[in-house]
């Protein structure tokens, strides 16, 4: 019987929460004012920028801090020390907001392709370098996960339960069809995968294969089993013939 899936911790959830915080007009206008100031802004300045009281501004500013969009500290504007408590000032964080439904990870694909260009060997073709880079990145991710969780020996069922968190965080929308079989309902690289399926699907397959290798899961393999509207890869028991899996989906 399959173990309970790990609760999702998708980065997209945080982005959606941040966008919802910016849905309030006054909050959004203060956030824009602070971003354009290129310096730390006091509550009084933020309040004046939208014409509200200092107390109400503090409420909205703290909401932006809680959402990770602003950071706050105590500092005297201009660096001039004065007697008494320093005022609280706000400045933007480096958080970038990207919300896509369904989830897309074009930045990961771009990063892998950039690494491929920078590390391409003299005897490699571009597609070979891209596939190699994707496999290395996946393996490093799996090794890092294993080092952090120290799960011991991983069989297929428990290993796939551990995989589900990464798959969910990367936008694959994993569905556990059997205790040892995961269907990936979303392609995080769509629609780019449709433009160059051999390249992108090959990288995707290498990335997930590398992850399984790095995590050291026995009895599981990543196979190419494309289905319209879904990811081209499926995680199945290692003894499954990839051609049989593909045939089932026709």
Features:
ArsR-like_HTH; Arc Repressor Mutant, subunit A; 7 strands; 2 domains; WH_DNA-bd_sf; four-stranded antiparallel beta sheet; disordered C terminus; three-stranded antiparallel beta sheet; alpha+beta; WH-like_DNA-bd_sf; disordered N terminus; 250 residues; Muramoyl-pentapeptide Carboxypeptidase, domain 2; Transcriptional regulator
Describe the structure.
The protein is α+β, with helices and mostly antiparallel strands and 250 residues long. The chain folds into two domains: 8-92, Winged helix-like DNA-binding domain superfamily/Winged helix DNA-binding domain (Arc Repressor Mutant, subunit A, Orthogonal Bundle); 106-246, 2-Layer Sandwich (Muramoyl-pentapeptide Carboxypeptidase, domain 2), CATH 3.30.1380. The protein is 51% helix and 12% strand. It contains ten helices and seven strands. The strands form two sheets. Strands 4-5-7-6 form a four-stranded antiparallel beta sheet, sandwiched between helices. A three-stranded antiparallel beta sheet has the order 1-3-2. Strand 6 (220-224) and strand 7 (233-237) form a beta hairpin. The longest helix is centred in the middle third of the chain and has 24 residues, at 126-149. Mean pLDDT is 83; it is low at 1-9 and 244-250.
Summarize the structure.
With 250 residues, the protein is α+β, with helices and mostly antiparallel strands. It folds into 2 domains: 8-92, Arc Repressor Mutant, subunit A, CATH 1.10.10.10; 106-246, 2-Layer Sandwich (Muramoyl-pentapeptide Carboxypeptidase, domain 2), CATH 3.30.1380. The chain is built from 10 helices and 7 strands.
């Amino acid at each position: 019987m399959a173990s309970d899936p790990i609760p999702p911790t998708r980065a997209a959830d945080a982005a959606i929460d941040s966008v919802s915080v910016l849905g309030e007009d006054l909050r959004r206008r203060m956030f824009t004012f602070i971003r354009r100031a290129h310096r730390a802004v006091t509550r009084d300045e933020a309040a004046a920028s939208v014409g509200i009281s200092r107390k109400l501004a503090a409420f909205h500013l703290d909401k932006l801090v809680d959402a990770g969009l602003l950071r706050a500290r105590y500092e005297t504007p201009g660096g001039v020390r004065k007697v008494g408590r320093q005022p609280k000032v706000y400045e933007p964080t480096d958080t970038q907001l990207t919300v896509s439904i369904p989830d897309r990870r074009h930045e990961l694909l771009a990063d892998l392709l950039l690494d491929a260009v920078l590390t391409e060997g003299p005897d490699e073709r571009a597609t070979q370098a891209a596939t190699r880079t994707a496999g290395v990145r996946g393996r490093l991710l799996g090794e890092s996960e294993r080092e952090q969780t120290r799960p011991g020996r991983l069989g297929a069922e428990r290993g796939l339960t551990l995989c589900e968190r990464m798959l969910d965080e990367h936008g694959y929308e994993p569905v556990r069809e059997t205790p040892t079989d995961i269907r990936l309902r979303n392609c995080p690289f769509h629609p780019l995968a449709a433009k160059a399926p051999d390249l992108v699907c090959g990288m995707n397959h290498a990335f997930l294969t590398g992850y399984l290798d790095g995590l050291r899961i026995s009895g599981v393999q990543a196979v190419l089993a494309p289905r319209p509207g879904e990811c081209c890869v499926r995680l199945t028991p290692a003894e499954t013939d990839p051609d049989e899996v593909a045939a089932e989906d026709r």
